[in-house]
Design a protein that fits this description.
The chain is an all-alpha fold and about 50 residues long. The chain has one domain. Helices cover about 55% and strands about 0% of the residues. The chain contains three helices and no strands. It is globular and about 25 Å long. The N and C termini lie far apart (about 20 Å). About 10% of the residues have low confidence.
Length: about 50
């Protein structure tokens, strides 16, 4: 996922944009968390872009 790459590069605004795009195309919180390597992948949380 491009958001993971942008996260590693430190572009938070880019991450938010890619996550929003992924959600627009049907990605779930678990999908996004798995791609970003977050704890949310196991249901313990969610990625929140703040939007």
């Amino acid at each position: 996922m491009m958001a993971a790459r942008k996260r590693r590069e430190g572009c938070d605004a880019c991450v938010d944009a890619y996550v929003d795009l992924a959600r627009d195309h049907g990605a779930t919180d678990a999908d996004i968390a798995a791609a970003l390597g977050d704890d949310a992948a196991d249901g313990k949380g969610t990625y929140d872009s703040g939007r």
